[in-house]
Amino acid sequence: MLPITSKSPTFSLPDQNGGIHTLDEYKGKKLILYFYPKDNTPGCTKQAVGFAERYSQFQELGVEIVGVSKDSVSSHKRFEENYSLPFTLLSDMDKTCIEAYDVWKEKKNYGKVTMGVVRTTYLIDETGTIIYASDKVKAADNPAQMLEMVGKD
To answer: N or C end of the chain, less CB within 10 A?
Structure first.
């Protein structure tokens, strides 16, 4: 996980529609950049749906939401359509952004060690500086916690 007050690494990744997004397009707004393991899995779905349910409130506060995983563009499109997700999902199949944000880690599951994306949420300010970071994210609670955090500014 990257430290608070560090500059956010740049990225250039395709979204669920194949359009390319970069960090620069979010300058001047706060950005919740959240990394998640896999589309259409229970925890990832709870987190995405939670952000979707609160999306208009985030928009009123001038906050953009972007989800990133190593799933394909077509997988993201199905995920978006299945749950009517109103925000951008970025596909990072070669893990350049995932590794730049230090979320590709060893994970233990039932004693088996594998590499994977550790669910992590970053809040990036209007200048591209990380102002909050957590890799102890509970998928179902994360959207409400982030809304509370940005609503206090």
So the answer is: C
